[in-house]
Amino acid sequence: MVKRVIVGAHYGLKDWIIQRVSAVVMAVYVLAFVAVVFLMDTFGYQEIHQLFTNRLVKVVTLMFVMCLLFHAWIGVRDIFMDYIKPTSLRFALQVSVVVALIGYGAWALLILWS
User: How far apart are CA 56 and CA 21, in angstroms?
Assistant: First the structure.
């Protein structure tokens, strides 16, 4: 009988799809944002501030940030699962990354809606 030992980040199709969809969403956002910036008559703080007063821009930017956070979490988690063998160290690193990503998400939310 073969005893199967699970090591590494083999989470399958769900995480693969999240990585690809989040990458596409981020790419579309970046291309659209660059296009909007190039279409502006002048580029400065006032114009960017005016752009981000639009609720749709805030929501789409928040969606970009959420995709970025999920994308980063899956990538870092997979790297930790593949290369950090001591379970306690891996757990500590994963917890620290989760805390940092939650902090970054809260900071982005604060910036967008303040």
Answer: 20
Residue 18, domain member (yes or no): yes
Q: What is the identity of the amino acid at 49?
A: H
Helices (H), 1-114: 13-39, 45-51, 55-83, 87-112
* CATH at residue 89: 1.20.1300.10
**Domain membership flag for residue 23:** yes
Give the pLDDT band (50/70/90) at residue 2: low
Q: What does the block give as tokens for 12?
A: 């399958």
pLDDT above 80 for 95: yes
* Domain membership of residue 17 as a residue range: 13-112
Share in percent of the chain as helix, strand, coil (round to 5):
80, 0, 20
Distant-in-sequence, close-in-space partners of 62: CB < 8 Å, separation ≥ 6? 108, 109, 112
- 37: helix, coil or strand? helix
The verdict on residue 52 lying in a domain is yes
Task: Kindly report the pTM of this predicted structure.
Answer: 0.83
